[in-house]
Amino acid sequence: MIVFALYIAIFVASWLLVKLLVHRALNDFTARKTVTFGDESAVRPSRIASVVSILTIFLLWGAFTGSTWVPKFLHAPGPFVGDASFTYTAEADGVEPDEATVTVRVFPVGEETEDPEVDPGDGWAKNDSASVGAWRSGLVRVDQNDEHGRDEGHRVVAVNGQPIAPGGEVMTDYGRVGMSPKGTLNFEPAKGWQMEPIWLPAPEAVLARLVEISRDGYRDSTLWEHLGWSLFRVIAGFFFGALIGIPLGYAMGLSDWFRGWFDPIVEFMRPVPPLALIPLVIIWAGIGETGKIILLFLAALWIMAIAARSGVSGVKISKVHAAYSLGASKVQILRHVIIPNSLPDIFTGARVAMGVCWGTVVAAELVAAEKGAGMMIMVASKFQLTDIVIMGIILIGVIGFGIDMLMRLAERKLVPWKGRG
Amino acid sequence: MSGLSIQNLSMRFDLPNGSSVQALKDVSLDLAEGELLSVLGPSGCGKTTLLNIVAGFLAPTEGKIILNGHEVRGPAAERGMVFQQGALFEWMNVRDNVSFGPRMAGKRERDYGANVDHLLEVVGLRDFKEKAVYELSGGMQQRVALARCLANDPDVILMDEPLGALDALTREKMQSLVLKLWKETGKTIILITHSVEEALLLGERLLVMAPRPGRIHREYRLPFADLGAGQDLRAVKKHPDFASTREEILGMIWDMEEEIMGRSETAGAAS
């Protein structure tokens, strides 16, 4: 909730700030183009907003994980670390109630620590010491070193002077002191607002993991092998999908028999999410490479077939007529008119297919694989290695984005006439 | 025998709902080699259908077309077509578009190259050879289409409102170009247009067609194309006969349109 409110606050504040500082001079004709219903092209993304947006994500991430990349004063309050203390009042049979102090050393998880040394103090209830990891909680058996133990009716009746009963709790400056149903105190140091690394590691921890895994590998394979296998599966599956799908689409666009025969199959298979095929493919082809490539082949096949089909049917009849009246034969029209005319549609299909394949391969690797980006994050999640999971997600996103960018680049280079017919 | 002969052509389209439309009824026409015929008529008079049949894209229900002594069956290189727009191949540059016909016929660059370059020069696109066609303006694109058609050296050129999508100024320039090309090449040309002025300026012969069923309503022989070739078209428009013929034809087409409107109104009231 706090994070969301902060996010909106940064959004609004940076917007106002940028409008005030940068766009104040902008009072010309384009300033009137703010209301542009139905004219999307008139709204261009603000580069400043994109940069601020990304910075904000890292800032919030860093602030709520206590990252060293974010200046200290921007950090959200962290968990309490240090020596905490509270007093308790104990009663026992046949003696006056007595008071003693508990000193608890709260240490960052993962560091070596020792219980603090304390003076036992006077009275029959002795001072205690304990240690608890930050974000954790620990039982403190205060009766253990007292002169009158539980066999003599030892019971704690108050903490810091406030009465407490089994099941109750008292809030102290350092955190919460609870009491178990059996009467044992349980100290839970204040957690602050930051996320624990096992839920959300700091960005530098993720980067450190990336460096470590790209150097040492993970699960007997280097990082590049994991990503490379995922990419290889995508490219192989897409390649075979295009190899069969494009000619199939052409046949469907050119022949009524092919169209009638394959239309029901293609139209049925197209809305089936490839993920739904994973179980069947595993039953038929196992969890090895064959199964995955078959799955990706199926993911790409229908998309490519439909793209090629619409590319062929989309050819303007005047172009075909023009070619005929210039003396071209049917084969020449296919080669010089219909195929080039369908290329933009095929490229659009290829972009969609690559995106779907990339999503499908990660999902398939989540289910079962020995190597691959999806397998890496799946295995890491089982060991609560959140930093590897986040690193994997970022890498998967970056590669997916990179694939799309490459496809767009290829499209601009290879079919510059797209949309300009 | 040379020339184009259209003999008793009828065309009926069957509609999905069982009825049919008589697009052309008993159209006959003889065109000598080198004649320029412009065809004019209200929408629905079957002028585009007529052109598509001559081009070979449609088979007529009745009648036939004889070109240079043989019957037309399907499209062929002897009958080139210039479309209103959008028929260029945008994956080829200007020169490859123009040389498409010769290349498809299996000719070599050294055989067609000089002619293609000459045609590009004639239509004023010498400096745009390597440009992509989608980078050109509408008028320039139609110049490419004209050159592409001529590069194939057809016997008959069929033009389906080739200047219809152009602005008035470009259109005038292109009209001069069409006349110039006609005079220089001596091709037989059938030009369909919905502009009375254009039909008068370019047509050596002028056909006015009437709708429902599509048929020849009236035929003219006009002097303006010969007058206009090689001189200012605006001077031709000042010719006294020009204005009177234009008014006559406009009135004729106007009456046809009125009749169609009246008929559909009666039909609307009856239903």
Describe what you observe in this structure.
The complex is a heterodimer of chains A (421) and B (271). Chain A is an alpha+beta fold. Chain A has 3 domains: 73 residues, no CATH class; 108 residues, no CATH class; 210 residues, MetI-like (MetI-like fold), CATH 1.10.3720.10. Chain A is 52% helix and 12% strand. Chain A is built from 11 helices and 9 strands. Chain A has a 5-stranded mixed β-sheet, with no helix packed on it. A 4-stranded antiparallel β-sheet of chain A has the order 4-9-8-7, with no helix packed on it. The mean pLDDT of chain A is 86. Chain B has 271 residues and is of the alpha/beta class. Chain B has a domain of 136 residues: Rossmann fold (3-Layer(aba) Sandwich), CATH 3.40.50. Chain B has 10 helices and 10 strands. Chain B has a 6-stranded mixed β-sheet with strand order 6-7-8-3-9-10, sandwiched between helices. Chain B has a 4-stranded antiparallel β-sheet with strand order 2-1-4-5, with helices on one face. Chain B is globular. Chain B starts with a strand and ends with a helix. The model of chain B has no long low-confidence stretch (mean pLDDT 81). Chains A and B meet through helix 8 and helix 9 of A and strand 6 and helix 3 of B.
